[in-house]
């Protein structure tokens, strides 16, 4: 798409962005299908939650980096919602806190999760690449990369319904992170999409916006690739969480083995 030479109308640009999600969003990854269909072992669910914390915890840092580059107060006010959603407005509030409740329920200590000591190299590299992308690319590209939120309500619905149906060690309470996300994601993606359509007004800037969304899809896909290699295929890298040897994540015999 980066070789695009034709100027798209705003509606055509929106359609092109949706096409990226249809072809590349990580709901198509086999690990996602394994997770929500009940085929994942408990250790795989644990590894997913542990590694995903690394991504969740860096989202407000990424968003603060983007916010600092915005010179329009109205745009900053809209973007600031993202930090509030993840960090909360008070201790014990926000998306990161709700994610920690999930890892609590899976047997991990908060100190271990928050240290990110057990995170896969592939997870860490992908997350850091995303933060650097948003700091170093144009503001348009940084905003466009967030548009995976256009597609997240569908994957959240599949994930929550599937996990509740198949894993007796998760509940609506432990999956509370996802309860607010569809509404938040729609609000944020509506704003980001309008911003991209208003600012990507040449073939070159439209191509940059499309490629930024492709990159973000790659970031999410790479994280699931890393999980599959380590915890489905069993090639656990040295120095990361290993369910066979680590006391972290130890649980009783409930649920899938």
Task: Please explain how this structure is put together.
The C terminus is likely disordered. The protein starts with 9 loop residues before the first helix and ends in a 25-residue tail after the last helix. The protein has one domain: Heme Oxygenase, Chain A (Up-down Bundle), CATH 1.20.910. It has eleven helices and no strands. The chain has 257 residues and is an all-alpha fold. α3 runs antiparallel to α5, α7 packs antiparallel against α11 and α8 packs across α11.
Quick one: CATH class?
Mainly Alpha
What is the CA-atom radius of gyration, in angstroms?
Answer: 19 Å
CATH topology: Heme Oxygenase, Chain A
The averaged pLDDT comes out at 93
**How many alpha or pi helices?**
11
Number of strands: 0
State the low-pLDDT regions, or none: 252-257
- Give the end-to-end Cα distance, rounded to a whole number of Å: 44 Å
Specify the oligomeric state.
single chain
CATH architectural name: Up-down Bundle
CATH superfamily: Heme oxygenase-like
Q: How can the largest sheet be summarized? A: none
Q: Structural class, from helix and strand content?
A: mainly alpha
- SSE ordering: HHHHHHHHHHH
How many structural domains can be distinguished in the coordinates?
A: 1
Strand portion: under 5%
Helix content: 55-70%
Overall outline = globular
Labels describing this entry:
257 residues; mainly alpha; Heme Oxygenase, Chain A; globular
């Amino acid at each position: 798409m980066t070789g695009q030479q034709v100027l798209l109308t705003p509606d055509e640009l929106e359609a092109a962005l949706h096409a990226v999600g249809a072809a590349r969003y990580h709901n198509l990854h086999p690990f996602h299908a394994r997770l929500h269909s009940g085929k994942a072992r408990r250790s795989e669910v644990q590894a997913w939650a542990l590694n995903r914390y690394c991504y969740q915890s860096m989202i407000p840092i990424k968003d603060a980096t983007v916010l600092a580059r915005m010179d329009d107060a109205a745009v900053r006010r809209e973007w600031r919602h993202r930090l509030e959603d993840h960090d909360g407005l008070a201790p014990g509030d926000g998306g990161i806190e709700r994610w920690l409740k999930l890892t609590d329920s899976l047997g991990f200590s908060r100190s271990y999760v928050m240290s990110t000591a057990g995170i896969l190299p592939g997870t860490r590299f992908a997350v850091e690449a995303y933060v650097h992308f948003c700091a170093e690319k144009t503001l348009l590209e940084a905003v466009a990369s967030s548009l995976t939120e256009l597609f997240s309500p569908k994957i959240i619905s599949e994930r929550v319904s599937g996990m509740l149906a198949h894993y007796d060690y998760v509940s609506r309470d432990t999956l509370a992170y996802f309860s607010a996300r569809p509404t938040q994601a729609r609000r944020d993606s509506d704003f980001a999409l309008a911003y991209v359509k208003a600012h990507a007004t040449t073939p070159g800037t439209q191509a940059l916006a499309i490629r930024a969304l492709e990159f973000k899809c790659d970031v999410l896909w790479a994280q699931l690739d890393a999980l599959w290699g380590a915890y489905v295929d069993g090639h656990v890298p040295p120095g990361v969480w290993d369910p066979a040897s680590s006391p972290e994540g130890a649980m009783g015999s409930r649920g899938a083995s």
